[in-house]
Design a protein that fits this description.
The protein has helices at 2-9, 14-64, 73-83, 88-113, 124-149, 153-177, 181-202, 204-207, 216-250, 253-286, 291-318, 320-328, 336-343, 346-361, 369-417, 427-445, 450-467, 471-480. It has 481 residues and is mainly α. The chain has one domain (2-425). Helix 10 packs antiparallel against helix 11 (291-318). The longest helix has 51 residues, at 14-64. The two termini are 12 Å apart.
Length: 481
């Protein structure tokens, strides 16, 4: 018992700290996302495809106005506090002032403009609720970036669970009392605000060290680091929301509902590389000047993420119809093909998140703007062609192609600045994925129950990796035992 307690609540070594932080991020994100998935499933059934489409469209539209809420400031703070720079508390103060200024500007602009734009009419109340949600989310992420530098992810896990628990309970209560997109928006905003207050409280001791006297030079250092993120952030925000917005503008909120339901599944899965990246980013930052150490860390992390992503992509593609019908109900079965296509984006998203961490840790972000920009242009152009013809399916095809393009370009460009080799490590992973695929297909042919198929697939894949002595799995087991 004492060993488990020490593993979960103390930082005793580099390897143990990474494993502990990853474990806590996993616990927090998984429990939090499962809680939120409950309210999402409830909302999709109560609101129907059209009502869920209105909420998803509104959320995407409002979120675009907050692209400047984080122009790399969060990453800068985690990086500087991790490095132990003597000016780090001046940077923290300047970053907080800059962050609040950008968020207030975003709040005002969104409230003034959004109710008057778009073919889907959005009332001021739902815009206000979602604007407060985005404001609170952005501010909380800044606060948690301080906590990540301290490598105390157990506290972040608590915040994530708290937010989603409040959102889920309040969301169900409000939707029962008044089933509307506004009720769901109020629940989201309330949960986020409570989580933000709690996040400030957990790092209050660190905030006491803030040095509020800072110079224009301090701001200049932050802006010099962050300005490449302006373009990247804009492009990323467009990439994340443009499909939903264009679907709403060119088709209907019903098509948005189908697309958004399938997209939620993929977003749920993306937390895996995200929390692996968050837990290891401080470690990469500390070793950014040591190419050998950086190479070893990066290769292990990338291999692990790919080992998780490959079977998820294939399994989700094969079982897409079962997933949509079981989770969202038979009315969402038409979006099964959308999910099948979006699952292929896992091949791009999982590795690209780790690529991005390496890029930021080594201050190479200025050189990677073009790839993101080109990916956004490809996405928009493909949407203009495919959405009028294939609706939500066209949007899914567009985003997958664009994401694959960005990942391939980032992968090739990073190799010019940072030597790494991943492909030779993938033999056991690919073979195990093939075995798992055959087992899933067999289970489908004989009509085995969906949940049982997933369990058998997971056991068979992990078992094959173990039998083949896959280093990523063996090292993980050695770390946590």
């Amino acid at each position: 018992m004492e060993k488990i307690k020490n593993f979960l609540f103390k930082n005793t070594s580099t390897k143990q700290t990474v494993a502990k932080n990853t474990a806590w991020l996993f616990i927090g994100e998984m429990l939090g996302r499962i809680l939120k998935l409950v309210v999402i499933v409830f909302a999709t059934r109560v609101l129907g495809v059209n009502g869920w489409g209105v909420f998803s469209y509104a959320l995407a539209f409002v979120s675009v106005f907050y692209v400047f809420g984080d122009i790399g400031i969060n990453t800068f703070i985690t990086k500087e506090l991790s490095s132990g720079d003597e000016n780090r508390y001046q940077y923290l103060a300047a970053s907080l002032v800059l962050k609040l200024g950008l968020l207030l500007l975003s709040l005002i602009v969104s409230l003034l403009l959004i109710p008057h734009f778009g073919t889907v009419t959005l009332g001021l109340k739902i815009v206000l609720a979602l604007a407060l949600l985005n404001f609170s989310d952005s501010l909380r992420e800044f606060v948690l970036s301080v906590n990540r530098a301290l490598e105390r992810m157990e506290r972040e896990a608590f915040i994530k669970i708290l937010i989603n628990a409040v959102t889920t309970i309040l969301g169900i209560v409000l939707l029962i009392a008044h089933p509307s997109p506004l009720s769901l928006a109020i629940a989201y905003a309330t949960g986020s605000i409570i989580g933000s207050i709690a996040s400030v409280w957990i790092i209050s001791s660190e905030l006491k060290h803030i040095q509020w006297k800072f110079s224009a030079k301090t701001l200049g250092v932050i802006i010099d680091f962050a300005w490449p993120f302006v373009a990247t952030t804009i492009f990323s925000a467009v990439m994340a929301n443009v499909d939903t917005i264009m679907l709403g503008q060119m088709k209907s909120t019903t098509e948005v509902g189908f697309y958004a339901a399938a997209e939620r599944i993929v977003q749920f899965l993306i937390i895996i590389p995200v929390f692996v990246g968050l837990s290891t980013f401080p470690l990469i930052s500390k070793n950014k000047h040591d190419d050998i150490a950086s190479k070893q860390i990066f290769e292990k992390i990338m291999t692990t993420v790919i080992a998780i992503g490959f079977p998820i992509a294939i399994g989700g593609w094969l079982l897409s119809k079962n997933i949509m019908s079981v989770i969202f109900g038979i009315s969402y079965i038409p979006s099964a093909i959308v999910l099948a296509i979006l699952m292929l984006s896992v091949f791009a998203d999982f590795p690209n998140i780790i690529l991005s961490n390496a890029i930021f840790a080594k201050n190479l972000q200025k050189k990677f703007i073009i790839a993101t920009a080109a990916g956004v242009v490809i996405n928009v152009l493909l949407n203009l062609y495919l959405i009028p013809r294939y609706a939500a399916v066209g949007a899914a095809i567009s985003i997958v192609i664009a994401q694959l393009f960005i990942t391939i370009i980032n992968w090739q460009m990073l190799k010019r600045f940072f030597s790494f080799s991943i492909v030779p490590r993938l033999g056991r992973i690919i073979f195990s994925t093939i075995v798992m695929t055959a087992i899933v297909i067999t289970c489908k042919v004989i009509g085995l129950y969906f949940i049982l198929t997933i369990i058998i697939a997971m056991i068979s894949y992990a078992g094959m990796l173990y039998l083949l002595k896959e280093p990523a799995l063996i090292e993980l087991l050695a770390t946590i035992t």
